[in-house]
Structure formats: structure tokens, C-alpha cells
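Q: For a teaching session next week I want to show students how multiple molecules come together into a single three-dimensional assembly. I've collected the sequence lines for a complex. Could you give me the predicted C-alpha cells for the whole thing so I can convert them for display?
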Amino acid sequence: MSEVLKQYSPFLELINRVDDGRVNFDFRESGHASCLPQPAMIKVEHVTKRFASAVAVNDISFEVLRGEVVGFLGPNGAGKTTLMRLLATYLAPTRGRVFIDGLDVFLHSLEARRRIGYLPENAPLYPEMRVDEYLSFRAKLKGLPRRKRRERMEEVKVLCGLKDVERRIIGQLSRGYGQRLALADSLIHSPELLILDEPMIGLDPNQIRAVRELIGALGRRVTVVLATHSLAEAEAICQRVFIMNHGRIVASDSPGRLAAQLQCNVSVAAEIAGPPDEVAEQLRCVRGVLTVQLAEPAAGNLDDGAVLWRRYRIGCRCGTDIRPAVFGLAAAQGWPLRELSLEAFELEDVFVELTASAGR
Amino acid sequence: MANIITLLKRQLRAYFHTPLAYVIMAAFLVVAGLGFCRPLVQHLGERIGVGELLFGAPYFWVAVLAAVALITMPLFAEERRSGTLEMLLTAPVTDLQVVLGKYAGALIFFLLMTMPTAAYFILLKVVARGMAAPDWRPIFTGYLSLWLIGACFIAIGMFVSALTRSQVVAAVGCFVAVSIFFFLDTVRLVVPGAAAQEALTYLSSAQHVREFAQGIVDTRPIVLYLSLAVFFVFATLKAIEARQWKQL
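A: Of course. Below is the structure for the complete assembly, covering every listed component.
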């Protein structure tokens, strides 16, 4: 029996790897070695960081797999920056251990740092240096060989849109360019793991979109961890979101599923033209409906000639979709219906709910 | 080693890309020039030791102490304030390399700043034709003492800079610390006890430079300054590493 098991052990390992549903098989490598499980890109075990005045990070454990893009969300002072600093090896935890690519960052700090591209909060830079000079300094410090340095600098300058300021003095650049330069610096040694602390601050909407696309493109090869307090950002970029509050992770899941967890009180918006009182009355009789609110008609918007459009907000019971019933009702009564939509909970609602309740 | 050189170059660029370097150098050379001229004019027609011309003047040494404080103040305080220290210490370089790179940068700046004073002696030789040929040996020992003291005090200044995020605090702290150390023979006057007084005299840099300026090379102060320099470089390293365990 054991012989048989041994024979199939590569397959068993494969199955083990698949269980989280995320593992990509790499068929380029052949043989048994490729079947061995790779260490998670980040593994954090019961990490606590205590400062004299407060516990910034309190007994946090999580794992981030290769190629994942994860976001840490939380209000100010939730411990995001401290956590990023712990991951980037700038601080050492009071308790617990941090592994980057299977390396304990306390014992193999330099090895771990070679794999990390780190963008600290506020993108600190040397104001007296020129853009090219700074990138060259950082590339040297990160051990890029001379031949590759030029080439790689050109690549990141193009990638981060720095070509037109390459000769400028950093102190004279705008905030957005500074942010992009710091991002270019974090990318210059082609890291496997990118740690970004508030990467979008100071960027205008076009730049935000560009950086989002950049992170999205990198996310296929590079593991990205970003701290942010912008929900839209996390929702747009991240496959997985950790919500932090008071140094703890209070929730973690994909943005969509996090929102779904809270979707017990769903509401439906309907725009119906009909006698308001009668419509509301009839809607209340629909199975699963708890409340019906008549929204104030927005001036000009709702009156379409002779037809009187009214917007209704219908609160309904968990797990029921009342939209077909509402449509049926409107059709039966002959009331024109021009909008019927589920008002899904946004990540923002989850965020507010979780961080507010944990704060109490 | 490559990392230390990269960091050293960055530090030197940081000095010369800001007006600070030129202001410090110019101010230092003006005061040093005064320190050179004054005994020359005072002792006109008398015989004096050539080493005492520059290295015997208290002005000159006060200028050295002030310059050291200004050279070392930005080393870590500025990087801590602006947050660039975080960028530096998360790059794949060791804390020791960062400390040594900065120390070497400051030291080289100190050498560059003091080197032009050699022109005073050359000028003296060229201009004062009637004067007896100056003895170069006390001049060499004078520079030896200057650079030894520089190496030691820069390490002290760097340590103070690593403790704070304010450059002003770093500069004042360093100036006070090195001044007390330099003028220990004056501090001696207010300390009771003959043994303590004698000990302070041995430690006083003012005492050492007087001997060096006369051409006397004593190995004891050499060992003292070199070991103090090593100690404060080490202390700086510990102050930087402290972020890892300190509960800020």
C-alpha cells in the first residue's frame, strides 16, 4: 500500500497545492521538483509589534501566495504602516515571525530585502539629487550589475512615466512625480514582492489609473501588498482584502465576498410611474418586502411629460430577490417601469461596519 | 565594500549639492586664516614654532569644533526626519555599511575642508623670503593631530545625529559634547581632587594639540582618538539598530 502511495505522491502533493484553488501549474519545469509546494511569498505568524504608547500590530497571522495582489485597509492608526514596515524588514516584531519567500526576515534580512521592492509612506526621496542620479544610486545599492543598470533604469522610467523629468532635480518635482519616482525605485531591481504603503497619495486621477494598470500588469508576475485607506483603490486592484482595525485583522476575503457577507439587508431601487400611494401600498404586499420608501423626486429629473416617475427604495428580507415580483406587479397593474436594480453593499459599508463595531 | 563606496559618494554629493558645504568651508577657512595671522603679527620679529602658527590658535580649534558639528548634523538626523532612512535601511545593505559609508563621507569632507590650510604654510615660505626655512615636521604632526581629532569628533557627531531627527539639536549637542572634551583642561579647574584633575589633563585635546604642534608625537592620544572613533562608530550602529527592538 505504501508503495502505491509513494508512486502517487507527486499527485497527492499536487492535490494539496490545489486545495486553495489558486495554484498555477508550471509545466515548463518537469520532474518531481516542480511538484514540491513553493513557500508562500509572505507568511506572518502571530506577529505583535508593541510601542511604548500602544500596540500597533496585535497578534496577526496571514499568508500571501505568489502572484496575489492583496490590500490592507483600515482607518488611520490601524497599524497598516507598522505592518508594512515589519514586512519590509525595517522593523522587527516584538513577538512572532515574518517569512518572505520562506526566509525568516530576522535571520536572512538581506536575502529577503533583495526580493522586496518597498514604497514607504509619503515616498521619501533625496531632494538635492536628480532623477537619473537617484535611480542609479538606488540601482547600485540594490546590487544591479553595471550592464543591466542602464537598461533597467530606462525600463522603469518608461513604465512610471518619468522620461520627461529624468534630468530634473527631485526637490523641484511635483508630488505625483515624486511618488512615481519612488515607485520606479521600488521596481528597479525587478523584485518578486512589492510592498506599497499608500501608493496613490498625491496622484491625479489619470496617474491613479496608470498606476492601477501598472500594478494590475505586474500582479501577474509579482506579488503585491498594498496598504491604503481608499476603498475604491482596494476594490479596483486587490484580489484579497484584509481589513485592519486597532492592530488586528478584523476581516479578510475578496472584496466581492466581503461585501456579500453583509448583504443580509439588501435593498432594491425601482422607478415606477404610477399613483405613489397605491404603488407603495401594493409593493408592501410583495412577499419578502420589509419596507418601502418613496424617494423625494429630484427636480426635473423624474417628471417626464405627463408620466409621473417616482423612485422607491424597497428593503427586503435576506436571501430573497424581489425584483421579478416587482416587475410582475408593475406589469399587471400597467405601470411603466424604467429602473429596477439591486443596491449591492459596497466595500465601504463593510469597512464602516467592521471598523466601527470593533472600535466600540 | 562596493556598497560603502556607493553610500560614501552619495554622502559627498549630498554635501556638495547644497550650499551648506560651501558655507562651512568658507567660514572655516576665514576663521582658520585669522588663527594663522594673529600669532604671526603678534610675534613679529620673534622666534616662534611654526606649528603654533595654526595649531596653537584657539580660534582655529573652535572653528574645527563648529565645523564638525555642522558636517555631522545632517548625517542621520536629516534622513530620519525626511524618512529616507527607511528607504536606505530597507535596501539590501547592512546597517554597518550605511554607518561606515556616512562616516567615510563626512571624514573625506573634513579632509577636503582642512586641506587648503596647507596653502598658508606654502604662502609663508614663498612670501617671507628672509625667514629661516620652516621646519616641516611640526606642521606634519599638527595635521596628524587635526585629522585624528577630526576622525574622533566626527564619530561623536554622527552618534549624536543618529539620536535625533532635528538637525539643530544634533549640531548643538555635538558642539557641546566635543567642546567639553576638547577643553577638558579648562574643565579641570572646576573639578576637585588632584587625581581627577590630572586624569582630565591627560584626556584634554587642547593639551594634546599643544604637544603635537611642537612636533612631539605621543602614541597615547593617537590610540585614544582611534579607539574613541571606533567606539562611537559602533555606538552609532547600535543607535540605528535600536529601531528593531526599541519600543519607540
